[in-house]
Design a protein that fits this description.
alpha+beta; Nuclear Transport Factor 2, Chain: A; two-stranded antiparallel ribbon; 2 helices; globular; IraD/Gp25-like; GPW/gp25 family protein
Length: about 120
């Protein structure tokens, strides 16, 4: 199945560019991470709620809760495609960094992707 490359881009032939399966999966993970529950009208539970933790007091317990919340959201929405092995969240200055280590179930290929988001937005 072909999916559009996100963010949308126009190729040299004037058509919208398509994503590879790896790009498509990475885009889906990013959507789950940075979508707040309630943000999508037809899927009110979609997302991880990651951004609600940004201003929470920093502690080991909070970091563990955040990682568990992200793993649960990825399992719920992408559990048929990936097996999440590890999630690590860090913030520095005004940037939030989420590293997800996962196995693609179809190919059994292990991947590590890091997603960055500005906290200033």
């Amino acid at each position: 199945m072909n999916t559009l490359l996100l963010p949308l881009q126009i190729g040299p032939d004037g058509r919208t560019m398509l994503a590879t399966p790896a790009q498509s999966l990475r885009n889906m993970i990013e959507q789950v991470l940075f979508t707040a529950p309630g943000e999508r009208v037809n899927r009110p539970t979609f997302g991880s709620g990651l951004q609600q933790f940004v201003f929470a007091p920093a502690s080991d317990e909070m970091a563990t809760a955040l990682e568990f919340t992200i793993q649960a959201a990825l399992l719920e929405w992408l559990g048929e495609r990936i097996q999440v092995e590890q999630v690590a969240v860090a913030s520095a200055d005004s940037m939030l960094s989420v590293t997800v280590v996962y196995t693609v179930l179809v190919s059994q290929e292990r991947q590590t992707d890091t997603f960055l988001r500005s906290l200033a937005d």
